Amino acid sequence: xxxxxxxxxxxxxxxxxxxxxxxxxxxxxxxxxxxxxxxxxxxxxxxxxxxxxxxxxxxxxxxxxxxxxxxxxxxxxxxxxxxxxxxxxxxxxxxxxxxxxxxxxxxxxxxxxxxxxxxxxxxxxxxxxxxxxxxxxxxxxxxxxxxxxxxxxxxxxxxxxxxxxxxxxxxxxxxxxxxxxxxxxxxxxxxxxxxxxxxxxxxxxxxxxxxxxxxxxxxx
Length: 220
Fold this sequence. Notes:
The protein is of the alpha/beta class. The chain folds into 2 domains: 4-15 and 87-217, 3-Layer(aba) Sandwich (Rossmann fold), CATH 3.40.50; 17-82, DNA polymerase, domain 1, CATH 1.10.150. Helix content is 42%, strand content 16%. It has a 6-stranded parallel sheet. A two-stranded antiparallel sheet has the order 2-3. Strand 6, helix 8 (171-180) and strand 7 (183-187) form a beta-alpha-beta unit. The chain is globular and about 55 Å long.
């Protein structure tokens, strides 16, 4: 029996791509490097801020990553000021989550973003008390695809992995859900495509948030 629904943030409950792109490009400009387009931003995100900057620097020709540490710390400062730039929920997502809550589901967010930025994004768009809990990057807990964060979240609610639906839009999410033993759901309205998600054999792949509540009617 499903007791809790956990969602990735970027590309799943919120369209944050323009905030991420803006913050990366402002950072690159300070190092006299070119920016990246939306398509590459979608490709580079998913495994934390450090890896986002690392991949961008490599793409821009910094093969020895001489600027990595300085650019990463500068990115964190810039992102703190721009993390809500043009951010908005995906159409139908707030309504779908409310339906889950009406059905008695606990709802949570699990992201690789720093905890403060997760709270900035979620609280400014969904409200402070919309989700039962929001988890971001935390000291001592490995980032996704490691299942540690997801398992810690489930432990907080006294829920077993098989009692959880975990939703995400990237291979990082699919691997995290699979590694944790949850019922893992891929979504196509985010940053990656069907082929990437199918490689991890999720329970199902959804094309629209409106179908999410109906999952609870299945014999999962």
